[in-house]
Specification:
- The protein is of the alpha+beta class.
- The protein has one domain.
- It is about 40% helix and about 20% strand.
- The chain contains 4 helices and 3 strands.
- Strands 1-3-2 form a 3-stranded antiparallel sheet, sandwiched between helices.
Length: about 120
């Protein structure tokens, strides 16, 4: 089971702070897994609901370098925000559990077995 960050164009200050060196596409993950002798059972983007927010933040950081805080800006969400995000993310999880996929997202999840 892999969970990897998606899209190199989203690499930002937070990634460097938490030592993320690269981001992937689902296609690249499939190629790497197959080349390593794995049979892919599932591979999809996830966190699709949050994708527009991350893109907006990335654009703001590029346009206004002072917009981005130094270090990671990852903070625990407030209880209210956690509650607001619980349902859309639960819906995404249910969609994936039904065997469906997403065409884009902040992360990639893949389940594969070695031959």
């Amino acid at each position: 089971m892999l969970r990897l960050p998606a899209y190199q164009f989203l690499l930002r200050r937070h990634d460097r702070e938490v030592h993320t060196r690269r981001r992937y596409t689902a296609g690249h993950v499939r190629v790497l897994l197959r080349a390593s002798g794995y049979v892919i059972e599932r591979c999809s983007y996830i966190n699709t609901v949050l994708f527009p927010l991350a893109v907006a933040q990335q654009l703001a950081e590029r346009a206004l370098p002072t917009f981005a805080p130094h270090g990671s800006n990852l903070l625990p969400p407030t209880t209210a925000l956690n509650e607001v995000l619980r349902w859309p993310l639960a819906a995404e999880a249910a969609w994936i559990a039904c065997g469906q996929t997403f065409p884009f997202g902040l992360s990639i999840v893949s389940l594969a077995q070695k031959l």
